[in-house]
Structure formats: C-alpha cells, structure tokens
Amino acid sequence: MTRTDSRSFLYVPAIKPALFDKAVRGDTDAVIIDLEDSVPLSQKASAREAVSEWLNSREPTGAEIWVRVTPEFLAEDLDAAAQSGVAGIMIAKCSTATLARADALLTELESTRKLDTLAVIGLLETADALRSIAAMAKYARVRTFGIGEVDLLADLRIARTPDTEAVIDTIRMQVVIGCAAASLAAPIAPTSTNFRDLDGFVITTQHFVDMGFRARTALHPSQVPIINAALTPSDETIASARRLVELYELSDGGPTVDDHGRFVDEAVMRGAREVLARA
Question: Which residues contact 2 (CB under 8 A, 6 or more apart)?
C-alpha cells in the first residue's frame, strides 16, 4: 500500500497547478492536492483536468501525493485522482456510505488502469463519522483518519473557546483511541488556519504529538518544518530508546531496569520501539 511514516501533509489548492511542483519539491513528506473546499463549484471541471494532467506528466519525487475528494462529486473526483504514482485519496466528510462507494469505484479504476491499491485517509467531520471509526476501519485500504475540526465542531455545536479546549481534546482522543483499537496508523492532527502564528503552531503541534497523533496537515509551507521537527525524535531520545532495547535483549526479553534504576518491561519497550520506528 503506502508507507506510514509521513509526518507533514501540505494542502495545495487544485486551482493552483503552478504550485504543484513547488510543493512536492519542498520539505513536506506528503502533498494533498485539494479538489474540495478550495475549489469553487464553477471551477471544479477545470481543476480536475489540471490535476489529472499534472499527475500524468509529473516527475517522481520523494513526497507522497494524495488527492482530497468530496462525496458530492466522488466519481468525477476519483476519475481525475486515481492515477499512477498517487499514494492515496483523502475523503472529505467521510462516512460509511461514502467509503463503501469510494472503495467500489477505486477497485474498478485500479483494475481498468492497472494501478496499485490506493490508500484512503478519511476525514472525520460529523458526529456520525466519529461514531463509525470501527466500521470504516474494516476497509483494507483505509490507512488512518484525520479530523476536519471546523466542520466537526460545527456539527457538534461546540464553540472553540478556552473553556472548551478540554472538551475538544476529549473528542480528539476518541480518534486516537479509535485508530489504535483498529490497528490503523496513528491519526493525522488538524491544521491551524492562522498560519502566521508559528509560535502557537509549535505549541499545538507538540500537544498533538503528546496526545498520540503522528502527523499533521499544513495550509502553508512555513508550517511544515515545525511539524517535521515535532515528529522527529531527538538524538537523545533515540539513544535512550536504543539503550532500552539493548538492556531488554540482554535480559532475554524479561523485565529489567534501565541505567537509572527504572523498571523496564514489554510495555516500556513498545514505546522505545515506536521511537526507533519514527527515527
């Protein structure tokens, strides 16, 4: 399918094809060509044409290519997006019904065009989607989920204020737990629309990492290095994880203690292995 280590996902409007090459050659791990909110209805057809043309002519790069599609125009969007070299599809306003239809359409396109299996990231933007993570995760092509937080909070009638931050974190944790329970990759954290507040973006990105998110979307290239830095373990953290693995192997997989006298068992080792996997 696709790799699971992309840290940063940079949105690029499908109506700005001049930015496509620049985006994939930048610092981001993945680029999301957006056929949804960033494209006015009157420009949908021309945007799809531009995306399809670029996908069929671009030079390979290290960045993953994703295309965000919308349920209202699913067949048309997937027809443009399902091309060779595309890692997967991000489905806006994902639901069990939309995912089932997308799965069928993608299976047909993959067969007709002789494509590798395209992964799917579902954006959770409704209360129903939040409750349907387990059902949607049963589709083999689903890699993980992200949160369309503005739409989700609107659907839940929750205002974003300092007093509701704890409530919003509780909702986010439902997604982290849902992905872990379904053995999916860790979820993708929502971006910040205030792309000029980079100091705030540093704080919120670290907060998401601490909560269990292992990627974040960006609206502006200036946000990308912050995401990558937050999700790249430090040399000290890597060295500590390697030392734990070494000590655990010396104990033949049984409980032991680290160099500071702290208890180390399999649960501790899971964290160390996750650090090394990200490194």
Answer: 64, 87, 88, 119, 143
